[in-house]
Amino acid sequence: MTSGAVPPTNPHAVVSTTGPVLIVGTGLLGTSLALALTAAGVEVQLEDTSPTSLALARDMGAGRVRGASSPEPRLVVVATPPDVAADVVLRSLDAHPGAVVTDVASVKDRVRAEVLAHAGEHARRYVGSHPMAGRERSGAAAADSDLFVGRPWVIVAEGAGPDAELAVRNLAVDVGATPIRMGATEHDAAVAAVSHLPQLMSSLLAARLETLPESALALAGQGLRDTTRIAASDPRLWAAILVGNAGPVCELLRQVRGDLDTLIRGVEQVALDPDGEQYAAHGGVETIAPGAVGAVVDVMGRGNAGRARIPGKHGGAPSRYAEVQVLVPDAAGSLGRLFSDVGEAGVNIEDFSMEHSAGQSVGVAVLSVVPSASQALEEALDARGWRVVVVG
Amino acid sequence: MTSGAVPPTNPHAVVSTTGPVLIVGTGLLGTSLALALTAAGVEVQLEDTSPTSLALARDMGAGRVRGASSPEPRLVVVATPPDVAADVVLRSLDAHPGAVVTDVASVKDRVRAEVLAHAGEHARRYVGSHPMAGRERSGAAAADSDLFVGRPWVIVAEGAGPDAELAVRNLAVDVGATPIRMGATEHDAAVAAVSHLPQLMSSLLAARLETLPESALALAGQGLRDTTRIAASDPRLWAAILVGNAGPVCELLRQVRGDLDTLIRGVEQVALDPDGEQYAAHGGVETIAPGAVGAVVDVMGRGNAGRARIPGKHGGAPSRYAEVQVLVPDAAGSLGRLFSDVGEAGVNIEDFSMEHSAGQSVGVAVLSVVPSASQALEEALDARGWRVVVVG
Fold this sequence. Notes:
The structure is a homodimer.
Chain A: E1 21-24, H1 28-39, E2 44-47, H2 51-59, E3 64-65, E4 75-78, H3 82-95, E5 100-103, H4 109-119, E6 126-131, E7 152-156, H5 162-174, E8 178-181, H6 184-207, H7 214-217, H8 222-228, H9 235-244, H10 246-271, H11 285-288, H12 290-308, E9 322-329, H13 334-345, E10 351-355, E11 362-369, H14 371-383, E12 388-389
Parallel strand pairs in A: 1-2, 1-4, 2-3, 4-5, 5-6, 7-8
Antiparallel strand pairs in A: 6-7, 9-11, 9-12, 10-11
């Protein structure tokens, strides 16, 4: 009822990868890769130390279980937990002397160092990979052939021959990913900041909820949900990743602790004054507790700046535009009049959004323009009778 | 073109609130409240120390600017930053002797204490509120009349008369919120954990991105985006909130620091061994670096537990069901056969989802059942030839 299904080939995909491709490790990444390649018509072989996982991936249509009579693979993808990746890479280089070997571990420096230390000339057939794709759910059952589409795929090709690098680059492109070439050290520092530290911060935060009263949890909003979503990740898998990137991760944790210490020192001054005499003064909080306020504003201001540097969802540059906000009545023709007047003002609109909810008769149009043009646009619209929102 | 618009009344809303309602403070919350009330046909008056903000709220249709000849309000909502809320509450109790007065500050203990200390008998007309609603964007221009729909609205009624409490409860319900009665101290401890600490953790994390190379930022994924979304919040507004809840916030920050210290101590052991001799052993990471692994697994395990306690998005209990996963071929009738066999097994399905992406010939059906029934269901389906996924 469920095994032996012939997966359809994707008639639209043009792929460079020539099989067979051997996938070692049928977890989320390995199985997703296998599914994607199989769908594109590439011959896939599967290996895993767990017979259960292996059988599941096979039954999902990811490929055939590699056996004694299977043809030699041209490409081997090691998709094991990172702590055993180097080991499996070395064994694969040895067992398949004609194959290019890559791994998908989240840490590249240690894996690469170990492979180079033991593989001799064979290391030219090894290229490190890191597809930046994933989900909180792990295991073959959560696999998705579209997992890599649009995602970055880091390629660490130091020490590898050009054919090997090309084979891995083609693999990435064939499954819909965007190849990005980086050094091993550069990669590890990067993922420490954009992947490993977020995981730990989410877990540290969520751990505070373990003993919280249910009445408090009832007040949970989207902010809490978003900051703790990835706290559902698998601890053992992440322990292997984090320990494998201990240096960069430790450095970031220490920097966070420094900021945290400053915050605590600032806030506890106020906490130690429970009668709130300080707080009751009429000057507002800046005059009452400047140390505490300063500490919070400093960290949050740097958080604002850091957040603004994250690229737009589709890889574009973060917004470097100024926003001009204008009230727009909910009447036919209003938006048309607005854009007409904007056109007359001669300012190019880079992006546009409307803030409007049902039942309101006035919406707020948000026009994104290059910063140097914002003042001219505000003045032009004001002169034409539009109500421009002055922010701040 | 933009002012003087007559907002439509909502013909479907039945409201208890009798106007006039005076909103003091035309920021995000105050203006959203004003818009919601106005849409429901309640007379709304507006006050704000900023003429710009006041005019904007008026022009958006939130209400009329309160003047010397305006009728006395029956209800006053103080929607100022929390550090001046008590002050404005006291002045409102004094200026409007017939009105119930409430505030929407995110911290209730200090505000309440100050009001009770200075208001004498008038304190019976004061009820603390905290509508648990918001956005990273602040100010009147970001206001939304639907902001409170479905959200909790905490009511702190200690020391207030029953009429005052009822008036505020009706206000909450009239704008679509769910009233929740709490004590002031209970409230402050709750929001410290579900709102204030998440804000700080997000900012601490995002601050690390401030000086990160752009090549590293290019690897950003959804995990980073989710954990840093609220890092875009306004620092000055939050400084007032956090300082006003310094005690509970400080306690949580110290607990986080404790976990962080343990993490650092665990991970730095490995970081101090750069040659990776430890890491190269063949036993996997648990045998190599048990201290580091233990520290990470401990925090992340507690994070898993904490995260699982957050209620479902629509207020339901977090899932307490077991999941049975079954492979389902992508062929007509498969799902029907599955549910038929499930029915024969006599097990009730509490929830169901399908994991399936285009191009795969097999999907994974996830059946949620009460934990005590999961084994029986697995065995029954297995006996009927279904491929049951064994997790772990």
